[in-house]
Amino acid sequence: MRSLAAGLALGFLADQLLGDPRRGHPVAGFGRLAARLEGWTYGDSRTRGVLHVGVLVGSAAGLGVGLGRTVRNRPGGGLLVTAAATWTVLGGRSLQREAGTVAGQLGRDDLAAARIQLRNLVGRDPSQLDAAGIARACVESVAENTSDAVVAPLFWGAVAGVPGLLAYRAVNTLDAMVGHRSPRYLRFGWAAARLDDVANWLPARICALLTLAVAPLVGGSAAAGWRAWRRDAARHPSPNAGVVEASFAGVLGIRLGGTNVYEGVAENRGTLGGSRPVAASDIAPAARLSLLVGVAAALAAAVAARR
User: At 293, is the pLDDT very low, low, confident or very high (cuts 50, 70, 90)?
Assistant: First the structure.
């Protein structure tokens, strides 16, 4: 258990120092494998989607179990494997870097570059967004991905070790690939979307609680974050993203949510937080809040894993 705790902490530190590798990222490799398998498993049915998700998530968890057995009797092997797996599945540093780049582009009034950069963070169409819309999309992505790419992997790592880390990342990746409500994936992607909702339900609420806990460190209000969470989270169509985005909005004193366009379809995401629209200057505080939540989550995961 000590090697698990130390490995989670070391993996988090590696992510913050190194970020994601530019080439050969294992998660990207998993995505390519999933896309290839889809050519065999795809069908306009939930049953086919369950099969697709079951094979891929089961394989990821099995790989984690196999790695654990391989290094069981090697001194320091468990620590190194856990650290490497944690680094692989976390995305906090890259999230902060992308947000900083968007903030810089908005600061230079380079909307064209900011719209292009934003595609690395969001699934919505940014082509018609103004500066305020880009800033809002960026902060919303920072909030949601603080949970999905930092808190949730650490939670599942603490609960189930390397198999939990890899299985969670497989679930989250598949949701991003096939879990959206397009005509092709409405039925086939149902299993991926629902499993992702389940896997993120508790981590999202832990993320929101940690957001409130570290709020004073960014000059924010924990009380306002709590009020926004309780009042506004249910307005969001996602049972998890709404919780995190509302808490971020309340702590930072800004208004998130509204109408987004996905593949030409407008979707109302409710109004979360206060009355002040997001500005480019709010991106940096949101990124700092994300980092602090990540640090708190890493410490909590390490403590939990030692028990």
Answer: very high
When divided into structural domains, the chain yields a total of 1
- What distance in Å separates the CA atoms of residue 165 and residue 27, rounded to the nearest whole number? 12
> Can you name the residues that pair with 265 across neighbouring β-strands?
262
Range of the domain at 60: 2-305
From the list 153, 168, 150, the residue with the least C-alpha distance to 60 is: 168
The Cα–Cα gap between 80 and 289 comes to 29
The residue written with tokens 């640090």 in the block is: 295
Q: In terms of Cα–Cα distance, which of 243, 255, 246, 254 is closest to 219?
A: 254
The H-or-E segment that residue 268 falls in is: strand 265-273
Give the containing element (helix H, strand E) for 246. Answer: helix 241-252
Query: For residue range 36-52, what is the model confidence (pLDDT) as tens digits?
Result: 999 999 999 999 999 99
Q: What kind and span of H or E run contains 159?
A: helix 152-178
Question: For 270, phi and psi rounded to 5 degrees?
Answer: 75, 175
Helix (H, G, I), strand (E, B) or coil at 118: helix
Backbone angles phi, psi at 219, to 5 degrees: 75, 20
DSSP 255: E
- Tell which phi-psi region holds residue 80, choosing left (phi > 0), alpha (psi between -120 and 50) or beta: alpha
Backbone angles phi, psi at 259, to 5 degrees: -100, 125
Report the C-alpha gap between 95 and 86 in whole angstroms.
Answer: 16
**Hey, is 209 helix, strand or coil?**
helix
Element (H, E) at 279: none
What is the per-residue pLDDT across 179-197, written as a single tens digit (0 to 9) for each? 988 889 999 999 999 999 9
The residues facing 256 across adjacent strands are: 272
C-alpha torsion angle, residues 114, 115, 119, 121 (rounded to 10): 50
